Amino acid sequence: MRPAKLLLACLLAASAAVQVTGCASLNEPVTPATAEDNALAARVKAAIADAAGSGTAMNINVIPEGGGTVRLTGFAESRAASLRTEQVARATDGVRFVRNELNVPARPEDASFSQELRRP
Asked: CA 95, CA 69: separation in Å to the nearest integer?
């Protein structure tokens, strides 16, 4: 992997780790990420950037949750892209569990179906 891509992935992972406390629910206890958790998140982010490109990786946050668990948030182009990103994360050394919370845009046919449901 090129040094610039690795640096970008590490910076994005570090940014996501810092934002964990701001995104946590008031009902969830916040556990500070350890250095190992942050390193794992950086490896996952680098793997996603390597597999999908840095443009796609910039839309995805990798948040370490401890014990080899990472949470994926952000946006994926499609359901298939979301699942592929999850597979890449799962294949990363040290990952035990992936919580995929990626947002996927609704398909046009889904919108027309929901409009049909609203008609009287």
From this structure: 6
